[in-house]
Design a protein that fits this description.
- The chain has 487 residues and is α+β, with helices and mostly antiparallel strands.
- The chain has three domains: 40 residues, no CATH class; 256 residues, SGNH hydrolase (Rossmann fold, 3-Layer(aba) Sandwich), CATH 3.40.50.1110; 155 residues, Jelly Rolls, CATH 2.60.120.
- The protein contains 13 helices and 22 strands.
- The strands form six sheets. Strands 4-22-19-18-5-17 form a six-stranded mixed sheet, sandwiched between helices. Strands 7-10-15-12-13 form a five-stranded antiparallel sheet, with no helix packed on it. The chain has a four-stranded antiparallel sheet with strand order 6-16-11-14, with no helix packed on it.
Length: 487
């Protein structure tokens, strides 16, 4: 064969191979990996996209915005930095701005100034109750704990807020030891949800029991009397403000049988009582002159009520509840009992709700329609909570950067920037403020640098403790600077 024909044949093959790349596109597998290929029905032929040319001539770009964040975010409050905590106290109407050079900001709906002013008015109230809902990114009081401490330093307040009796996530907000016969039931756990014949999980979406769940119609006369207890102590690993609480609340409901309660303060009997057994939601409250060194609660009865948790707060100032839901995407609220949720909200009186969801759906997101349906569902659930709390303000925190492997390179999941954009649009359209953790981290392909700097773990999804403090401080500084613009 002549050299000219050989050359033409090679060129023709190369052109044909490149033309096939035009029919190839990115697809996310069931395991969350990004793959290139041409889809034929349910099958996919692995084949590169035209982007392969760019990869041949361009090395992997690194997004090092985290270096700027570390350099510019000088104030990171550590749990043991008591001197800084004292100096950092800010008087309500004289908030001082802190200069930061960051990617990302808080986006506000409608009249920005009016929204920020109302937000500041909420924080300056005698008490301001905040509820922070989220997925595993906030487990163990992460993000919530840091922001709570900063806000309590600025606007007074104390205590960790909500704590479940049966703790399943490691946390340092308070030391709580429960007897071994407690079981937790979570509405966002589908397997557990099937074992309970009602949907009354309340504001915190979980409850704990010291006896097995039984229906209200069951005969309890033959059941033995069960005893349970839990002990609470301030944690020496938490922020000083979290160790300052004088208001105790034991939230319960679905009590259909007599249950005795004994409360001990620092080893001395404080109260002997009986819980109300009418099946409705109740909050058993105790007030103290100062924080108890140890608080022990003993319970005794044949059938346990549903205990939604305890709350530990200061008498005034900012209160902030951490409600973490591992594996959840924020779409369970509308499935819970609305009237029960509303009753518990009326007692807790939330002023501000923060929702932080989205990351759990990213690895399984394959189409723009799926993305739109998810964001619509999330906003619908937020509006459901808003209907039960018409005077509260709402904020949505979008997911951070998340990384997957593509042709041997670590890249941002394709739907992370798309979700960030759509979440912001839909949130603002529905009167919800929006903060983009994705933008604050530095945007696309920033997670790799966060991992290299020790600010995120090797799953390229979650923050390390130091990274949690950094992103929390960035969020707080954005809020602080905005609040300083209004009187």
């Amino acid at each position: 064969m002549q050299p000219k024909k050989i050359l033409l044949f090679i060129v023709g093959v190369l052109v044909a191979l490149f033309t096939m790349t035009l029919f190839s596109s990115y697809h996310t597998t069931a395991k969350g990996m990004v793959r290139e290929g041409i889809v034929f029905g349910d099958a996919m032929l692995r084949y590169p996209t035209p982007d392969i040319l760019g990869m041949l001539f361009k090395g992997e770009e690194e997004n090092n915005k985290v270096d700027e964040l570390i350099k510019d975010t000088k104030t990171i409050v550590d749990e043991k930095t008591e001197n800084l905590a004292k100096k950092d106290t800010i008087v309500k109407d004289t908030v001082q701005t802190s200069e930061t050079n960051i990617e990302g900001k808080i986006y506000y709906p409608g009249n920005h100034t009016d929204y920020i002013r109302r937000l500041k008015e909420k924080l300056c109230q005698p008490t301001c109750q905040i509820v922070h809902y989220g997925d595993s990114q906030i487990e163990g009081d992460r993000i919530t704990g840091y922001v709570r401490n900063r806000l309590q330093l600025a606007y007074t307040g104390g205590g960790p807020g909500f704590i479940p009796i049966k703790v399943v996530y490691s946390q340092n907000s308070v030391d709580i030891i429960a007897s071994p016969n407690w079981t937790r039931y979570a509405f966002f756990d589908r397997k557990q949800r099937k074992t309970v014949a009602h949907d009354k999980y309340g504001l915190f979406s979980t409850f704990s029991r010291f006896t097995n769940y039984v229906s209200n119609t069951a005969d309890t006369t033959a059941l033995p009397v069960a005893k349970a207890s839990f002990t609470i102590k301030p944690s020496d690993k938490s922020y000083a403000r979290l160790r300052n609480y004088t208001r105790f609340g034991l939230h319960y409901g679905n009590a259909m049988a007599k249950v005795k309660i004994r409360v001990y303060q620092d080893g001395n009997i404080l109260r002997i009582d009986t819980l109300i057994s009418d099946g409705k939601y109740h909050n058993y409250k105790l007030n103290f002159a100062s924080t108890p060194k140890e608080l022990k609660v003993e319970l005794e009865g044949k059938v346990s009520p549903d205990f939604y948790g305890i709350t530990l707060d200061a008498s005034s100032g900012v209160r902030m509840d951490n409600v973490a839901m591992r594996g959840e995407a924020g779409r369970i609220f509308t499935r819970m009992n609305y009237e029960h949720f509303r009753q518990m909200s009326a007692d807790r009186k939330p002023d501000i709700f923060i929702f932080q969801y989205g990351g759990n759906t990213i690895p399984y997101m394959k189409t723009d329609q799926q993305l739109q349906e998810y964001v619509n569902a999330l906003i619908f659930n937020i509006k459901w909570v808003k209907r039960a709390n018409p005077n509260a303000m709402f904020m949505l925190l979008g997911p951070g950067d998340m990384t997957t492997s593509h042709n041997g390179q670590l890249i941002t999941y394709p739907f992370v920037p798309k979700m960030n954009k759509l979440m912001k649009e839909e949130a603002l359209k529905n009167g919800i403020a929006y903060f983009s953790i994705f933008e604050a981290m530095g945007g696309e392909n920033s997670m790799t640098a966060w991992v290299k700097k020790g600010m995120a773990v090797s799953d390229y999804v979650h923050f390390t403790p130091q990274g949690t403090k950094l992103i929390s401080e960035v969020f707080y500084q954005c809020l602080l600077n905005d609040l300083a613009t209004v009187q």
